[in-house]
Amino acid sequence: MCGIIGVVSHRPVGGDPATNSGVGQILIDGLKRLEYRGYDSAGIVLADKGRFTSKKATGKLSALSQAVKGNMPVGNIGLGHTRWATHGAPSCDNAHPHFACDNSIALVHNGVIENYQTIKTKLAKEGHKFRSETDTEIIVHLIEKYHKHHPPLESVRRAIEHLEGSFAIGVIFAKKPNILIAARLNSPMIIGLGDKETFLASDIPAILPYTKKVIYLAEEQIAEIDASNSAHRVNIINFKGRKQPCQVSTVAWDAAGAEKEGYPHFMLKEIFEQPAVVRTTSRYYLDTKTNTVKFPALTGMAKQLSAVNRIVLVACGTAYHASLVGKYAMEELCRLPVEVAYASEFRYALPVLDKRTLVIAISQSGETADTLAAIRAAKAKKALTLAICNVLGSSITRDAMVTLYTFAGPEVSVASTKAYTTQITAVILLSAYLAKLRRTLTPKDEKSLVREMLALPDKIEKVLTLNDMIADYADKYKDVTNFMYIARRYNLPNAFEGALKMKEISYTHAEGYGAGEMEHGPLALVDDTFPTVAIAVKSNVYDKVISNIQMVKARKGIVIAIATEGDKFIRTLADGVIEVPETPEILSPILTVIPLQLLAYHTAVKKGRDVDQPRNLAKSVTVE
Ligand code: M6R
Fold first, then answer.
1. 237 with 280, same domain?
2. I need a labelling partner for 58 at 20 to 30 A (CA). Which of 403, 415, 440, 571 fits?
């Protein structure tokens, strides 16, 4: 849950002062793009003339940027880290980098070392002095121990043989300014190949301004970057010391995708990107000449997929809600039993799986620890595994048998928005493909679904024009302490998602509930101060939701309805109506979630919340 960056460069030490382009500034700028991964403290270290200079600050990255102003450490090699605390409170002592006793080695770490206490006790008996409460610090002391007799790469390899848990680490040695080392186990790490400079980072946006050429470090690999001459050499070994091949990929994202581009927050920018990313994602899986779905990545698996007799979707958070939409779509189109499991539960629940079960993991980052563990558990039981994921080369995509990418581009805001609508897009089109294989979808129905899908981006544009009106609703209700979100069938996951967005960024308590469950308990909460957001678009459960709204109104509750354009009746009932264009119910969650995202966004802004980096959270949950 932390962000790491490392650089070794042939730029002039200290960079060009006029353009502030030295390694120190690369580290600070990279951390800024990784800040979504953790933001309670940060630090950098650079090596020059055999010595380290480091700066650390608690709080957001702006504190560190301030601390280095006019006082930037210099060097041709360095590491940076932005922290989301697990062991030890956010403080300068606990902030990374951490150092060996003699300050000859510096290290940054993302992950959790589960057996750190045992190792720490042992190292302390051997005379090592610890300066922090972190689990991380033991790694650098272990490396120091081995470095007495071994070169850098072998010392790192021997040190990590002791570690249990998860880690991505970056290591530098004060007296070896051309050697940058990275290693990973269950935490992401990429290597970026620039022009006479090489990078390591937790995620692609950190290095996008400098290069699009990357190596995705695989599980249990260690990379040594040797920058002794301008053609940097990348040497990769596994934890056993055996040489590994290294494959260079080119990233399709551009640097602008990871910038705010004039929007006040990434979240708002990402909400407004939804017409484009839903269009790109759907078109990738559609043949627009024949109006049919196409999944070339699945062709080789068609026989196994036709034999599937059960589907299990696993995910966390917002991706879990996308999975719930997937369940409705798969059951309706494929006529197969479908379950949805929280990945955090699935991995410990002894799930019954076999080779006729298809396990689908949905994840924006592809790095969520529980979702990754769930897909591995499914693989171990010989189930077919498929990932729906946004990040190329991420851990989940490596473990799943096949990956269907969403094309949302970099999602920086902690609150997931465009990833969600592209996940729903992909899972619905996948349902149609599986249904075709099973002959449960007629060509006529397929064409009609495809046509409606292609019309969706323009309809999302239309919903986005309601932004100001939704901001007014947010203004009106910003001081309430509770929100209820209700819906049925395909839109029930959006009731959960709307409540999650509201809690996550505005810190207002909110609950999502099946509309038909209100009278089984939650109706007791309703009074004339209590707002309920009801999703009541035209569908075969419309009348049922209307009855549920009437129950709330009969208790004097406030109702904001998300309704289909032109629904005059609902205006006679609800206190406020937000209209979305008509679309088949199966696709409606892609439209009805937009007002919910905007309502949460504007409420958070009006309450003065830190929209993109809400308290206590981080974007990728790479620890359990
Ligand atoms: O990267 P993933 O999609 O696997 O992440 C799953 C959740 O952590 C994520 O959706 C989280 O719930 C969001 N912050 C919600 O906005």
1. no
2. 415
